[in-house]
Write a structure and sequence with these properties.
The chain is an alpha+beta fold and 349 residues long. The protein contains 7 helices and 18 strands.
């Protein structure tokens, strides 16, 4: 059984509500027999702590979680987050349910799990220039001008060849629901020991997104034809790449420890809009933020395009997002346009 005697609180930088909440949380922990230390995210360093923490509680959004995660990766310090940001995909609680979730964590009712991260290193002129960890992703992309990036890729020292594209995303399972998903990459289950390789707009669509085991080592050599290229880590750290630079990337298993559960993963991909939610029979109130509302809006827009193109009036069902009685979108009109709609919405028509 894990014991959390000394707890580190890390508050989002420049966020007064998170800081005030952290001070209140210190009192809450003291009343329950836990010691704690509070620090601001931008000032956080493992070397500046009074003592080694048994648990780190991050009060902020996904950005704060990523920044702290990179610093404690490989340090065997469990981490959880209370959301003070926008999406909070990486956090376990928010300001409405924090006490319930935190009590469960401290009572060992929420399991301690390991997450795979990415390690990377940048070599220039045969000398190590930079290295570090990535919680979400490592991205190679073009600069201010929309010019293709050209890199020569090898996998476990086996040549893969040259790739010309707008960029390349390497994403951990935690990061697979972010940038790489928007670029067409798969979403990995959070405890998978594998990572995603996603080219961004590859020339002639020459390479599709792929998934590789954690122990696979990628090496990317920036070719002479690359005019302007950048390396970005978790969307927070950036480095200019030069011709001849060598970037090495591999997975690091059991690098980050978090308090989470498998059900939390599926709940997050459902509630954060990563999959379209089922609208059950009889549900009348559909918020504009829901994924169904978004799909319904695209459905209406597409029908307007069809009507304009073919000059025919189409009968639409549902007429509004709250008009859904069957959980199915339907269209009444000529048969020629019906096959186009499912691929747009992802719903059965």
């Amino acid at each position: 059984m894990q014991k959390y005697n000394h707890i580190l609180l890390i508050a989002k930088t420049g966020h007064a509500p998170a800081l005030a909440f952290s001070r209140m949380l210190q009192e809450w922990l003291t009343a329950r027999g836990h010691s704690s230390q509070l620090c601001i995210a931008e000032e956080f360093s493992l070397y500046g702590l009074d003592k080694r923490p048994d648990l780190a509680i991050v009060l902020g959004g996904d950005g704060t979680m990523l920044g702290v995660g990179r610093l404690i990766a490989g340090q065997d310090i469990p981490m959880i987050g209370i959301n003070f940001g926008t999406v909070g995909f990486l956090t376990i609680a928010d300001q409405s349910n924090w006490e319930e979730k935190l009590t469960a964590c401290l009572n060992n009712e929420i399991p301690l799990q390991s997450r795979m991260t990415l390690s990377w290193s940048l070599t220039r002129h045969a000398a190590l220039l930079e290295q570090g960890n990535a919680i979400n992703d490592v991205v190679v992309s073009h600069g201010a001008l929309a010019r293709l990036v050209s890199v020569n890729i090898s996998i476990n020292n086996e040549p893969m060849g040259s790739l010309r594209c707008d960029g390349i995303i390497f994403a951990s399972p935690m990061g697979s629901s972010g940038y790489t998903a928007s670029a067409g990459g798969p979403i990995l289950f959070s405890r998978t020991n594998a990572y995603v390789f996603t080219p961004i707009c590859p020339f002639m669509r020459s390479v599709s997104p792929m998934v590789f085991p954690a122990n696979i080592v990628f090496r990317l050599l920036v070719e002479d034809s690359s005019i302007d290229a950048y390396l970005t880590v978790d969307g927070q750290e950036g480095y200019t790449l030069e011709r001849g630079d060598l970037l090495t990337i591999k997975g690091e298993t059991e690098s980050l420890h978090v308090l989470s559960s498998d059900s939390t993963f599926f709940e997050r991909i459902r509630t954060r809009g990563l999959v379209l939610e089922q609208i059950w029979r009889g549900q009348r109130d559909v918020p504009e933020s829901s994924s169904w509302y978004s799909a319904w809006s695209r459905y209406r827009l597409w029908c307007m395009v069809l009507q304009h193109a073919h000059g025919q009036q189409l009968g639409l069902y549902p007429q509004s997002p709250s008009d859904c009685e069957s959980g199915t979108a339907r269209i009444h009109g000529p048969a020629w346009e019906r096959p186009n709609i499912p691929s747009l919405l992802g719903y059965e028509l």
